[in-house]
């Protein structure tokens, strides 16, 4: 994006050039003649970081002086992407940097692409954390993000013969210019061992944990700057290191291999991000990661609090800790342990402080994604925490009994311990009990939380559950990803659209009716489509027609997200284009991208199917260029920034009730794509704002899905029998038309759809087909389509993460003056 100063001030340009050249010489150790493009990237990033540091140190001084409340955002994932344009643009330096580099013959827009994505997250939840960090800095909320500095982020996806292959991701190979290593900020985090009970000098019973194993957590800080440099916050990520004494001792004793193994075991904690976005059978390393970063973060924030306020009694007034899903929920037990065992507070006081400080965000209702840990594992790895969890449970159940609640089923459902198939600790219930606020991420999701997973806890604590509908940062998803559209908006709405899009974007509505404006909007979209077509040509050697309808589904591959429904439609469309010559089909490009969890076989098969369908369709001359299918490998934040501005149609077609919110739905609408979707997650609120007439909503509602499931009488055989189109598609898949090398490849998949259609793909197929015909209808009425597209942009302001963060800060954290 070009920032305020359309013609950069020469002094600032010179200053930036000098700063970069100094970094190139004194930090990279090169002169301009010998510098590689990567050297330039590093020099520019380091120079940019300097600009942030001044603000940062000022902000920290101000927070201390004004005793501002601090927000701590605990998350195992921060899906950041690249930072160069984010930082430059928020500092108002983008045009200055571009001009400064041009003077030394370096193209900023080229070296931008050399930055590796920081992919420290799987998908929506991790990206939300990154959007929130940026919005908190923009709104001046004093915030610290806490997480793990994974050596390897989410795997790189290669597609080999149509199948996903995972490759190790190595984002730190060339170092990371944004971070500051803080070797002096280090905490010991322990595991295992046993707990003994002693009576201290005052006659109090105390529990002493004698751990078997200790690792060190070392801090790395990345500054995050808000829009127009409003404020700078830190993202503090922990790296696991072995305790030196330990391995030296073994090494000196001659056990060289043993010493190395010990180091590897300790350091494996921050080695790699778990590449699954729903829980798999409780893995010990995952629990170690969770406790590792929670323990280090809590010790760090308590130390900061004590040094500033010298008492822990005002913790909830000065600190708010937000748990991003249950992944950090061991914080409930760890905070209790620190307060009771280490700071010697009475249990009840400690509990009051804990509940008033912690709050928890739930991101999923899928039963398989609700975290629980075997009691035996917890007992072995965290024996003192297991005691504390039992004690919390006992106090809780006693309190309910004291209120006259004796209903066995109720007590069993709200317990922290799940009995049967081996006892397990329910992390959702632990997070709920230990927090004063539990929020969902869209109105529908929050309502379903009350009605399903947390019904009983909600009845006991009706004030706790609240909604905070997700949002996205417009700086990345509009300004950076789509500078042409941003420029157009500035011309018509003024620069206010950059600062307060929530108020300003609605003023775009009248322009939807102006042909001249629509023309500009169309031109801008075409530019983005041409750019995406070039990328597809380069990466896949597939030629796209930029005037075709770009129909896009990009997100993690999951059965509930129903990429399969989209693929069945693709096959149906393919068959229809070949057979129904009398119909006029609008040229269309189906674009897919997304990663599957490495162990999720069905998801990987769906990727293979997308590639099989693509090969078949793209090489069939009878399609006459009316349909192309593309699976773009290695979906990540940077690829999203290229795809989203080029989309005409956004696919948000999850089985209703299963997608907690979705956030790409908002990114697409903001950039003017029309949504085809179910009434799920935030689609519901989008439809209320954008208007049903400007979207293509279809399919069963969450309530209808629920009725079908409960009645247990859903039979997809009937749906298939009633839909010749669907039947024909399934027949083709089953018979191996798309997999001549392995005709039986999709037999299992078709059987599942026929006998056990858990995600109601068949039930929604005809409605989806019809909705797609409405899409084509509107697409052909060119001017009406683009009117709707403009209205999508105009009416999406509310989905800014600034609005979301303002709500968290006001209702949950009480952190904005
Ligand atoms: C848990 C335990 C062990 C291993 C992995 C996990 C794990 C990791 C990631 C479980 C879940 C996730 C990620 C979930 C996620 O991304 N949820 C999405 O969150 C978005 C932001 O709120 C929503 O918009 C999406 O609807 C929701 O699916």
From TrEMBL:
Residues where N6-(pyridoxal phosphate)lysine is found: 667
Cofactor(s) in the UniProt record: pyridoxal 5'-phosphate
Endoplasmic reticulum listed as a keyword: no
Claim: Protein biosynthesis is one of the keywords in the record: no
The protein's name in its UniProt record: Alpha-1,4 glucan phosphorylase
PROSITE patterns given in the database record: PHOSPHORYLASE (PS00102)
Similarity remark: Belongs to the glycogen phosphorylase family.
Catalytic activity: [(1->4)-alpha-D-glucosyl](n) + phosphate = [(1->4)-alpha-D-glucosyl](n-1) + alpha-D-glucose 1-phosphate
């Amino acid at each position: 994006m070009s920032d305020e100063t359309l013609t950069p001030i020469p002094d600032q340009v010179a200053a930036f050039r000098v700063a970069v050249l100094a970094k190139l010489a004194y930090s990279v150790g090169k002169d301009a003649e010998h510098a590689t493009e990567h050297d330039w990237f590093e020099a520019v990033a380091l120079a940019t970081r300097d600009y942030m540091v001044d603000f940062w140190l000022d902000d920290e001084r101000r927070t201390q002086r004004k005793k501002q409340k601090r927000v701590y955002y605990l998350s195992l994932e921060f899906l950041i992407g690249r930072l160069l344009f984010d930082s430059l643009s928020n500092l108002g330096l983008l045009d200055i940097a571009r001009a400064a580099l041009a003077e030394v013959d370096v193209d900023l827009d080229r070296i931008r692409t050399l930055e590796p994505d920081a992919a420290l997250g799987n998908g929506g939840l991790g990206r939300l954390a990154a959007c929130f960090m940026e919005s908190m800095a923009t709104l001046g909320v004093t915030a610290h993000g806490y997480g793990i500095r994974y050596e390897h982020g989410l795997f790189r996806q290669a597609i080999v013969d149509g199948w996903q292959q995972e490759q190790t991701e190595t984002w730190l190979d060339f170092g990371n210019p944004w971070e500051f290593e803080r070797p002096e900020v280090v905490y010991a985090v322990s595991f295992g061992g046993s707990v003994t009970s002693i009576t201290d000098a005052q006659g109090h019973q105390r529990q002493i944990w004698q751990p078997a194993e200790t690792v060190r957590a070392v801090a790395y800080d990345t500054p995050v700057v808000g829009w127009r440099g409003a404020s700078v916050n830190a993202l503090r990520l922990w790296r696991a290191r072995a305790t030196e004494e330990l391995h030296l001792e073994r090494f000196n004793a001659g056990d060289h291999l043993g010493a190395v193994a010990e180091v590897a075991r300790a350091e494996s904690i921050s080695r790699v991000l778990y590449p699954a976005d729903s829980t798999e059978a409780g893995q010990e390393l995952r629990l170690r990661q969770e406790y590792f970063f929670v323990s280090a973060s809590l010790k760090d924030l308590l130390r900061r609090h004590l040094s500033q306020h010298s008492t822990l009694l005002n913790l909830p007034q000065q600190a708010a800790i937000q748990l991003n899903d249950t992944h950090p929920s061991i914080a409930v037990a760890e905070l209790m342990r620190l307060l009771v065992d280490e700071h010697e507070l009475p249990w009840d006081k400690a509990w009051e402080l804990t509940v008033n400080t912690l709050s928890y965000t739930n991101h999923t209702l899928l039963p398989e994604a609700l975290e629980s840990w075997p009691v035996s594992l917890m007992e072995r790895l965290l024996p003192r925490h297991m005691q504390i969890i039992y004690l919390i449970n006992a106090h809780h159940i006693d309190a309910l009994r004291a209120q006259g609640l004796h209903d066995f089923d109720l007590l069993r459902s709200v317990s922290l311990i799940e009995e049967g198939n081996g006892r397990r600790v329910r992390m959702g219930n632990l997070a709920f009990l230990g927090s004063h606020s539990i929020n969902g991420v869209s109105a529908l999701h929050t309502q379903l939380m009350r009605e399903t997973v947390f019904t009983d806890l909600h009845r006991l604590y009706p004030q706790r559950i609240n909604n905070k509908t997700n949002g996205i940062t417009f700086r990345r998803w509009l300004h950076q990803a789509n500078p042409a559209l941003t420029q157009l908006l500035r011309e018509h709405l003024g620069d206010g659209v950059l600062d307060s899009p929530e108020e300003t974007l609605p003023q775009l509505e009248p322009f939807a009716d102006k042909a001249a404006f629509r023309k500009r909007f169309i031109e801008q979209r075409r530019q983005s489509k041409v750019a995406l077509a070039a990328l597809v040509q380069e990466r896949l050697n597939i030629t796209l027609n930029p005037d075709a309808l770009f129909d896009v589904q990009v997100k993690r591959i999951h059965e509930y997200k129903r990429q399969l429904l989209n693929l069945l439609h693709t096959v149906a469309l393919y068959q229809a284009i070949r057979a129904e010559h009398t119909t006029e089909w609008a040229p269309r490009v189906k674009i897919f991208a997304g990663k599957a969890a490495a162990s999720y076989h069905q998801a990987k098969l769906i990727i293979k199917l997308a590639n099989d369908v693509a090969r078949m369709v793209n090489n069939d001359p009878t399609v006459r260029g009316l349909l192309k299918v593309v699976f773009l490998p290695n979906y990540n934040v940077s690829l999203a920034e290229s795809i989203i501005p080029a989309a005409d149609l956004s696919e948000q077609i999850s089985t209703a009730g299963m997608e907690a919110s979705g956030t790409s739905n908002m990114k697409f609408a903001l950039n003017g794509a029309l949504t085809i979707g179910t009434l799920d997650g935030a689609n519901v609120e989008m439809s209320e704002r954008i208007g049903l007439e400007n979207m293509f909503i279809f399919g069963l509602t969450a309530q209808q899905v629920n009725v079908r499931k409960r009645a247990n009488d859903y039979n997809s055989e009937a749906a298939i029998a009633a839909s010749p189109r669907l039947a024909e598609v399934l027949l083709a898949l089953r018979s191996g038309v798309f997999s001549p090398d392995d005709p039986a490849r999709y037999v299992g998949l078709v059987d599942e759809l026929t006998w056990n259609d858990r995600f109601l793909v068949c039930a929604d197929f005809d409605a989806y087909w019809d909705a797609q015909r409405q899409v084509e209808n509107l697409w052909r009425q060119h001017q009406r389509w683009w009117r709707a597209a403009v209205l999508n942009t105009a009416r999406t302001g509310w989905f800014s993460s600034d609005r979301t963060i303002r709500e968290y800060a006001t209702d949950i954290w009480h952190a904005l003056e």
